[in-house]
Amino acid sequence: MADEDVFDVIVIGAGPVGENVAGRAVRGGLTAAVVEERLAGGECAYYACIPSKALLRPVGLAAEVSRIPGLELRGPIDTAAVLARRDKTVSHLDDGGQVGWIENVPATFVRGRGRLAGPLRAEVTTPDGDTRALRARHAVVVATGSDPYIPDVPGLREARPWTNREATSVQQVPKRLVVIGGGPVGCEMSQALHALGAHETTMLVRADRLLDRTEPFAGELLANSFQESGIDVRFGRSAVRVERPVPGGPVTVHADDGSRFEADEVLVATGRRPAVGDIGLETVGLEARGPIEVDASMRATALPDGWLYAVGDVNGRNMLTHMGKYQARVCGDVIAARAKGRPDDLPALRDTADDRGAPQVIFTDPEVCAVGRTESQARADGFAVRAVEYDMGAVSGAYLQADDYTGRAKMVVDDGRRVLLGVTFVGPAVVDLLHSATIAVTAEVPLDQLWHAVPSFPTVSEIWLHLMEEYGL
Ligand SMILES: Cc1cc2nc3c(=O)[nH]c(=O)nc-3n(C[C@H](O)[C@H](O)[C@H](O)COP(=O)(O)OP(=O)(O)OC[C@H]3O[C@@H](n4cnc5c(N)ncnc54)[C@H](O)[C@@H]3O)c2cc1C
Ligand SMILES: NC(=O)c1ccc[n+]([C@@H]2O[C@H](COP(=O)([O-])OP(=O)(O)OC[C@H]3O[C@@H](n4cnc5c(N)ncnc54)[C@H](O)[C@@H]3O)[C@@H](O)[C@H]2O)c1
Fold first, then answer.
1. How many angstroms is it from 146 CA to the middle of ligand 1?
2. Is the dihedral of CA 281, 286, 291, 294 positive or negative?
3. Which of 52, 162, 185, 325 most suits a substitution to test ligand 2, by most atoms within 8 Å of the C-beta?
4. What is the mean pLDDT of each run of 10 residues along the chain (473 residues)?
5. ipTM of the shown complex
6. Fold category of 366-471 in CATH
């Protein structure tokens, strides 16, 4: 092994989150190395957020066009053209641009598998099999992301199911598809692949609704849309056995009610688990079991006042790119403050957003966006809750968007303090409304103040006026 290279900060994992930690730490006056085993840019850039949205965009646009009389698509969606555009959005799986971004920070990019190797140390197995030793003066940050969870269903692993990777990088859309799971991945990928050629798509959803962590009407409206478009959604059903006798041949998925579904592919969308395996946690006395728990400055709680930090999917707080990048800004800045002896307890150096209920958009048709707590979460947390709902289709700005506009909105109010705890919008063209709700929830804007934020006529944002009138303002 060669001599060790020394940096102020070592980041393991160059997904959107790891890259941003390095960016902030260097901005704060430190040196940084970023270790990446596969592609700089992470899951998000190549196999998750970006390609899935590239696949969904034409589907949403086609649906929008179909809702305006006088506009017509000239034929079905050209799947080959959509896949070609998807390939462009993922830079044809070439991470040269991302590596360039890291080097411009400037930070040192190290290609290879990183592992902790004792306090403040890491070692990297490079692609040619060499080992490179790194030492950090101040901090090591684990930003290794997450891996898909494959449930222990007999025959499922052997059937080589698709995960988000195969689904987002699809080259040949299977005609018959079974999707296990009704969360964000299951919903987004079912709708995209169904519209692009998976005409026989069946979803096995263990819960009694889609997106079961959102307000119930969100999953119901989405299920109506799926069923109208021909996606077969089976609620309360789990896969119990899978058979694929010939590798690459048809696959049969058996459900717990005795029904069986034959398909060309099966997509597992049953959640993700923090990537903590084989990253050397045992060398610093930690177990590789579950998320790496952190305090509000992103420091691992198992090593108090220590040098180890964990950000993004690997800490299990909110598996969303924007939340991981927010944590990265906190983390990079706090490490720099501590290293330079500056105050490390300023408000911007603590994560306060993750516990409030992260903003999230599911890019389906209809779009589903939510921030903060649902009504049932707010009640469980002991707030004096009053919740109001409104039919989005009755808003002028919305029904101008589309004939038969279907959507719904809800705000959950802490009735004692008259501030918002959570907001949900479901419908076409609602995604850009979400940030107004995020501001109101995060800043705890009193409703009596919010009342004076007048939405323009005729925009979809007049939903705010209607919700507040429903509340009694
Ligand atoms: C299909 C899909 C769609 C999604 N869509 C959205 C969306 O629209 N919006 C949104 O906010 N979120 C979305 N997400 C979630 C989002 O992808 C993740 O929250 C985000 O990628 C987390 O970023 P990260 O940097 O923590 O991890 P990752 O993006 O997983 O990056 C981790 C990186 O670390 C590397 N790595 C791991 N272990 C090592 C090691 N030992 N040594 C070196 N390198 C290592 C990996 O190769 C990887 O590049 C989606 C997820 C999926 C699956
Ligand atoms: N647009 C977005 O923001 C977006 C899109 C995709 C994914 N993501 C994020 O990526 C992560 C992974 O998403 P996901 O949908 O895979 O996970 P998830 O955990 O959000 O949903 C998985 C679903 O599968 C179900 N499930 C779990 N085990 C099962 C089993 N054995 N049989 C049947 N059903 C089972 C769960 O009840 C749940 O409804 C999430 O954190 C999600 O928020 C975000």
1. 6
2. negative
3. 185
4. 88 98 98 98 98 97 93 89 98 98 98 98 97 98 98 98 98 98 98 98 98 98 98 98 97 98 98 98 96 98 92 98 98 98 97 96 98 98 98 95 94 98 97 97 98 97 98 97
5. 0.98
6. Enolase-like; domain 1 (3.30.390)
